[in-house]
C-alpha cells in the first residue's frame, strides 16, 4: 500500500516536469501568436487647460487607467506589464461636461514585438465637475493672550476675506476660512503672516480647493488696563415726606482698557442719570454705565445695580408756648399770640416719641427798642425731626416802657361817655 502511494506521487512529479518542459518548448521554439489583456495601464492627461476653458474642474482622487488588449508572440505577450506602455489622452478641442467623460487615448510607447491594434478603440473615463469661485469670510481661530496688565482689544485680518476655487462639490462645502495660530504674553500691538484653512460647517478641513490669497496678515490690538470707581449720577431731589438714607452701586469698580491717550483721561465711570424724585421706597435699579467711546469694560459689563435706601416721613402737629429771650430791663412786651402751632415730620418711631417738651419756640428781643415789631420765632427740634410749617409764621410784638400806661388804662385818653338825653317833654 505504501509502495503504491509513493509511486503515484512520483508519477505526478514526472508529469509536471514534462508539462513545464513542453510549455517551455512551445514558447521558445514554436512561439505561437497569443492575445492577452494588460490591466491598470495609467493614462497621462494632456492639454488640461481645455477643462478650465470650459469652466470645469477635474475631480480629485481619480486614477485614470485603461485595460489594453495586446497581440503578439507568446514569449512577448506573457512578459507584458502595465509599465511597458505609455498612454496619453489629449483633451485639446474635446467637448466636455460635468460628470463622467469618455476621451480617446493614444498608445505612444509599447514593446516593439507587440501589436496594440486591438486596443485602438479603448477610451479613458475622466470625471469632471463645474468649476466654482466663491468669496469666503475669514474667521478667527487665533488665540492671543495679553500680560496681566494688558488686554487684547481685537484681532483683525487683512484682507478680511479670500476666494476659494475648485470643483463645485468641494467649494460648496467651504463655509469659512479659518485663521489659526496663537501668541502669548503680549503687551504691545502684534502682527504676523498666517495661512488660511478652508473649513466646513462642522469645522473640518476641506481639501481639494485652492485659496487665494492663501496667506493673510493678522493684527492683534493690545491696550493697557486700569481700575476706576463707578459713580452714581443723580438728578432732582427726593420727594417731600421721604429721606434718602444712602446709596451704593455694584460693581463699585470697573476694570477698563483703551488707547493710552484716552485711558489717561478716564478716572471714573458714571451711571446713567437717575431722577431721585421718583423714589418712594428702598429699591435696586439697573442702570446703564456711561462708558466713553473707545474705552472697553473688561469685567463689569455695561450695567450696574444701584441701591437706594429710602425712609418715609410722617407728620404731627404740636402747640408750644413761646419763650422770650433778651428783653431789656424796664421794658415790657405784648404778643399777638402766646403759642405757636408747629407741624413737624420725621421717621415714625422718633415722631411718636416726640412731646411738647422736646420742642422749643423762642423769640429773641435782644437789642429791640420800644415799638411794634414783626418777629419769626426760632423753632428747636430734635435730630431726625424736620419742621414743616408754623402757625402763625410771624408774631407781632409791642414793646413799651414798663411805666408807660397802656392806652386802654389811661383815663385821660378814654373817649367821653355819651350823655343820656333828658326827656323834657311834658305830658
From TrEMBL:
Superkingdom classification of source: Bacteria
Residue ranges, annotated region (Disordered): 401-427
Biased composition (Acidic residues): 404-420
Keywords: Membrane, Transmembrane, Transmembrane helix
Residues annotated as transmembrane: 9-27
Record-given protein name: YbbR domain-containing protein
Organism: Proteiniclasticum aestuarii
Lineage, uppermost ranks: Bacteria, Bacillati, Bacillota, Clostridia, Eubacteriales
